[in-house]
Structure prediction request, 149 residues.
Amino acid sequence: MEKTFLMVKPDGVQRNLIGEIMSRFERKGFKLAGAKLMPVPQGLAEEHYGEHKEKPFFGELVEFITSGPVFAMVWEGEDVIAAARQMMGATKPSEAAPGTIRGDFGMIVGKNVIHGSDSKESADREISLFFNDGELVDYQKDSLSWVYE
Ligand code: DAT
Ligand code: MG
Prediction:
C-alpha cells in the first residue's frame, strides 16, 4: 500500500488543528502508520525543503517550519499521495477550494497549515527524513474491508 508523509505545520499546531486534520484523514479511509509531535531542527528543515533552496522565500520557509513544533504523520492507502494533496488544497490558501484543509483554515502562502508529499519519490525521502523504521507500525485494520473491495 502506498504511503505519504503529511505534517501539520507550526501554525496548525498553535491553532489547535491537529485533531481536525487527523480526523479528516481518518474519516476518508487512510490508515495511520506513525505520528509524532516534534520540533524541526534547522538541518532537517533545510534538507526537507532542499528543492526550494534557490527560491527567494527559502529563508522564511525554514524559519517558519522551525518556529514551533510540527505534527509529523505517515498515512497509508490506495493513491494516498494524490488523495492527500487533493484534501490539502492548493499551495496558496487564496486559491485552495473550500472543503480543503488550506481552503478552510489558511489565509496566506507563508502559513498554509499543512505539508504533504507530492510524489512517490518525495514521500519515500520525507518519510525516511522524519521517521525511523521502528516508529512506523504495520498492523491489521479490519474496518478497511468497509473502505476497499
Ligand atoms: P506545497 O507545500 O503545496 O507542496 P511547494 O512545495 O511549492 O508547495 O512550496 C513549499 C512551501 O513553500 C509552501 O507550502 C509554502 C512555501 N511557498 C511556496 N511558494 C511560496 C511563495 N511564492 N512565497 C512564499 N512562500 C511560498
Ligand atoms: Mg511541495
Q: What stands out?
A: DSSP finds seven helices and four strands in the chain. The pocket of 2'-deoxyadenosine-5'-diphosphate (ligand 1) is lined by residues 52, 57, 61, 91, 109-110, 112, 115, 118 (CB under 6 Å). The chain has one domain: 2-140.
